[in-house]
From TrEMBL:
A single MF term (Gene Ontology): phosphatidylcholine lysophospholipase activity
Record keywords: Endoplasmic reticulum, Hydrolase, Lipid degradation, Lipid metabolism, Membrane, Phosphoprotein, Transmembrane, Transmembrane helix
Membrane topology type: Single-pass membrane protein
Boundaries of every Cyclic nucleotide-binding domain copy: 90-168, 320-420, 420-523
Organism expressing this protein natively: Helobdella robusta
The organism's taxonomic lineage, starting at the top: Eukaryota, Metazoa, Spiralia, Lophotrochozoa, Annelida
Origin superkingdom: Eukaryota
Chief place where the protein resides: endoplasmic reticulum
Protein name (database record): lysophospholipase
Biological processes per GO annotation: lipid catabolic process; phosphatidylcholine metabolic process
Amino acid sequence: MFFIVFLFKKCTSESHDEEKSADKYYHSRCARTKKRFSFFEADRLVTPRSSYADLRRGVAVDSYSLYNVPQRNYYRLPPEIIFMIENVKVFGHFSENILLKLCYHMQTKSLLAGEHLYGPCNPDQNIIVVQSGKVEILLETDNKTHTIKTVEKGESIYSLLNILQKFRKYPNRSMNPIIHGVAIQDTVLITLPIAGLKEVLDKHTDSLIDVIKIIGLRLQKVTFFTLKNFFGLTSDLLFENVNFHGFNHSKVVDSSSKYQLCFVENCDSDSSNSSHLVEYCLICSNKKLSTHFAKNNICNQCFLEASMSRFKKLLNLDPDIADVDIEEIHKSAGSVIIQEGTLTEKLYFLALGSVHLEEKTEASNDSTVIGFHKHDKLIGSLSILTGEASLFTYRAVEDCYLLAISKSNLFEAIFKSPDIIVELGASILNDLSALVKQVDFGLDWKHLEAGKTLYNQGDASNSAYVVLTGRLQSTVHEHSKSMLTGEYGRGDLVGLAETLTQSVRGSLVVAIRDTELACLSEELISFIKFCYPNSVTKLVQLLGQKILNSLSEKKNIFSMISKATNKKEEETCTNKFGKISTVAILSISSGINATIFCEVLKCALDKTETALLLNSSRVLNLLNSSTFESIPNYFLSSWLSQQEDQNDVVLFQCDNQITFWSKMCIRQADCVLIIADAKDNATIRLVEKRLDEMSPRARKYLLLLHDFDTKRPSNTVEWLKPRPWCSGHYHLRCHPGIFSSAEINVVQNVSADFCRLARVLTNKAIGLVLGGGAARGCAHVGVIKAMLDANIPIDMIGGTSIGSMVGAVWASETQYFQFFNTLQSWCKNKVGKMLFLAGDLTYPYTSFFTGRNFNNIVRETLGDSVAIEDLWLPYFCVTTDISVCKSREHFFGSLWRYVRSSMTLAGYMPPLCDPEDGHLLLDGVYTNNLPADIMHQQMVGVKTIFAVDVGRVSSENFSRYGDSLSGWWVLISRICPWMESMKVPNIFEVQSKVGYVLCEKQLLEVKSSNICEYLRPPIDKYGSLQFSKFDEIFLVGYSYAEKYFEEWKLKFNIPTTSR
């Protein structure tokens, strides 16, 4: 007991008597209630997340902290405060000094099962957190009671809108819905009176302003966003007087001022009625009326003074700061005051006229009128308060007269008189419907740190979630294996199907990056459906879209996107990895000019996307700050979210060391690009060791940079081996400027490799899949030539049998002339002459040939020590593993060995032993001769897949030779000119056809599922061993593909793409 008292005295020593008395009071109360909070001794092992004050002072609070300073000791704080910080989001932004002062006002309260927490006669006046037990929140509407939320241990009960209303000095009417709270079981609560919170914040201006901003952010980004996008509610969000019924200002205007009374009584009069007009101004009496304000019976000057006075009174401007610059603005009928989706730089006061609130419809760009404002209204309050884009378009219905104050001038006045921002926030409440205030009690705002679990597979489903910012990953565990089922980004709805059907969770969902979520309880969803039946239509539409997306997983990605009617529909057509919105770039090599690299990558992204590059210096300049310590955490996160909203891709350039900015970048990123000079030592750096801790779930890619004249990468495995957390790697050839500090022309340094990386990051990569068919595979070379001539890039490649060989050579070279010469020589001079068979015969126990000579010609062509990881392009090949009787896909390992395995027909050559596990590998033609499905499922970023099938078509024109066949007789029939040649397949063709039969079902599924663009050159007349006819088969493939790609580009209106 004495230790606790000593600890509190040490951490709360202050010179002010008020703070000392607060500490003294709390020490005694804490001693009396220690048993009530004993569970914290175990629960407090996890340190709470960073607070607003911590980020301003640069204090670290957890293992994912954004600062490089000693860790703040939250154990000095009382357990109730820690619990509040963890469960009431807004408290995380308070300093420790403020939190300790709140102890004076905090209380504990015990409820028996069935006892009421509050009701109509005892309205909600507190912020409440359930310490133990369970409370049911009930909402009364039209003599009916609805359950909107069940609150369990660790969850909170409060309404931020109610807090905002209680902060006002002179609330003009009650804003509270009729809420009941009933304990389902014996419950212990921690309560903090809102009046006590206001009393403390009145002495801390910065924190008060921050709280009001957070409330505005919550309203716009959580409540409005959820109700609009997932329940289809628009005009229902606005107060009925705003929704076309006008507003009786005579009830709220102070009539003590003569000019205000005149204005209110006459502002809506018909100007055409001369009986309402007087010759002189009713206020100053000696000035003639201006025609512009004739219907108000006052002159221009008096009207301006009246409007100014009303504007200042509405904002509660103090006299000593009443000299703020206020601008007069006239808007003609039909003109736009604020455009939907744009940032507002001014706060407007509608002094005269009327304004429509419009919203764009999803199906088209047309706008629908959802509300109506008359004079005496503030316009743009919410956007000014939050810094977010406007939710609506404000359009003048008639000629309007407005007053405006700039955002900078407004906040200068706010810092002098914080009550201004309270009134500004409270003015928003007047425009909100009862639904918004009701939902605010039941809608939770949840913060999920990177790597933390949202829910586990098999958990009960009691709520759905909307991703506000960040990214989630869904994984299914079956038969001791985990399978990625998808990723959820901004605006996605998670867990709705299980919640509506009351089934258990079907997957494990984890945060890839720091994520903000809106939590909709099952009871809240039911309440909204009951009150607004039309919202069911929107929910059914969302569920239907989700089901269609899952069913169309195997549909043609390009065709789906080509038919998409809007951007949102296009985004639903991406693969299961989801669209990347934010990319962090971390350099681990001192010789790389990271700034130039980022600018080159941005230039490549700008060709198809809207990209933004941010680094620490640019952010500080944009936010007018000298250090990140002076920027509140919530404000910086919100600002970064705005940039994400306004751009397709945001690139974060990390600092060279682990700094605040570097950690913020990594925690905000959907994926992390680690750039390194391929010539450097491959040892893992210190910054990389921290990387997996800071962002354990985000995809991480290693980018190895090479000189532009590098022939082929090497030793890639040495880089990847100590980095098992890397999701993949890419090789990029760079101009010398990236390896120097000199300034270069960024546009001229955008190489094909950077364009390829940009397409992969934006899910617009083009893949090529080459099927098996022995000598007929020479047509693959012609197809690649046609793609290059049509300016269609190849970003990734894979294949089976001869397709694996052609694909490996292209991925090694990527320069057409070397590629063509290599394969032409290999087909005509080596395989075509069959010289490799000489001296390779053996006793045919497993095969006719040892395979030694064939191994040599494959090894000579591809390289002895080259690994798949060393190829310029992402590559894979398919083999058949006869040890376990299944198909194998090879994305890494010895290149020549797996290519040789993929071309090994049974009986001709022995299966090759896998150097990794010793399994026996045969030709992939037996299991998957056209692996377009493999590329679609496992290659990240692919959008369009071209699959080239050169397999032998089934034939029924064989000779009927009876019950037995003599090979000698077949030979004689082909030699003798007077005998009819027997049409009988040779051993090689029999083996090939066996493979085609075995994978025929898989081939039909690929063709019918439309996951690829299917190409079939007319090469059926060529035999499987006619490699000597390389030039002829090449021309057949080229002619066919040239015509095909011309028609394809016309069909889908494909523009010319830079390689």
